[in-house]
Amino acid sequence: ELNGMVDSTVRLNQGTVKTRVIKREPRSHFRTITPSAVAAVRGTEYRVNVVSEAKEGESKQTTLVEVYQGLVDVGAESVTFPVPASFGIVAKQGQTLQEPVKLLDKPEFIALAEQQTLLLDTAGKPSAPILIQWQSVALASSFQLNILADQQGNSKTEKLLKSYRTESNKVNLNDLELGCYQLILRAIDQLGL
Question: pTM for this structure?
Answer without folding.
Answer: 0.73
